[in-house]
Amino acid sequence: MATMEKVPMLAEGYERLTADLKALRAERPKIVDAIEEARAHGDLSENAEYHAAKERQGQVEAQISEIEDRVSRAQIIDPASLSGDKIVFGATVTLLDEDDKPVKYQIVGQTEAEASKGRISYNSPIGRALIGKEVGDEIEVTVPSGDKFYLVDKIEFI
């Protein structure tokens, strides 16, 4: 049984999820039509079109169910409304690595995370290590490439 834990996300992540949900729901009637058409071709045991349409229907229904669950538990957080001196969800953090090179991350939800754009999930190793830290704190993170050390340089809510 799924927990009823809230899923924190930014407004844009929520909008992306609801758009995906709308697109998947719009695909439902097309899949039903494809199943009906394939069924009209006769013997279902060797009907590849029928099996492909049924498989796609299962995938779409599973995706719809998962997205509906996330949307129903969504807790939309606006980083601009936050403040404080501790790192929390939505904060944009500037870290200094071992070479004193600045690295900037925003702590976001799982659906919004894109490391290449500096957006990391609060569930990621670095995200978990950062939550609750303050400017001047040092963190150590074990990532696939080894241990990384950072110094929290700046916390912003933008």
Number of helices: 3
Shape: elongated
Give me the count of strands. 7
Radius of gyration: 22 Å
Q: Report on the biggest sheet.
A: 5 strands, mixed
Strand order of the largest sheet: 5-4-3-7-6
Low-confidence stretches: none
Q: What portion of residues belong to β-strands?
A: 15-25%
What does this structure look like?
- A 5-stranded mixed β-sheet has the order 5-4-3-7-6. A two-stranded parallel sheet has the order 1-2.
- The longest helix is centred in the first third of the chain and has 29 residues, at 11-39.
- The radius of gyration is 22 Å and the shape is elongated.
- The chain contains 3 helices and 7 strands.
- The protein is 38% helix and 24% strand.
- It starts with 6 loop residues before the first strand and ends with a strand.
What does the secondary structure layout of this molecule look like, with pairings?
Blueprint: E1 7-9, H1 11-39, H2 48-72, E2 74-76, E3 92-96, E4 102-108, E5 119-121, H3 125-130, E6 138-143, E7 146-156
Parallel strand pairs: 1-2, 4-5
Antiparallel strand pairs: 3-4, 3-7, 6-7
Helix pairs in contact: 1-2
Compact overview of the structure:
By secondary structure, this protein is of the alpha/beta class.
Considering the chains and any ligands shown, give keywords for the structure.
158 residues; five-stranded mixed β-sheet; 24% strand; 38% helix; alpha/beta; 7 strands; single chain; 3 helices; two-stranded parallel sheet
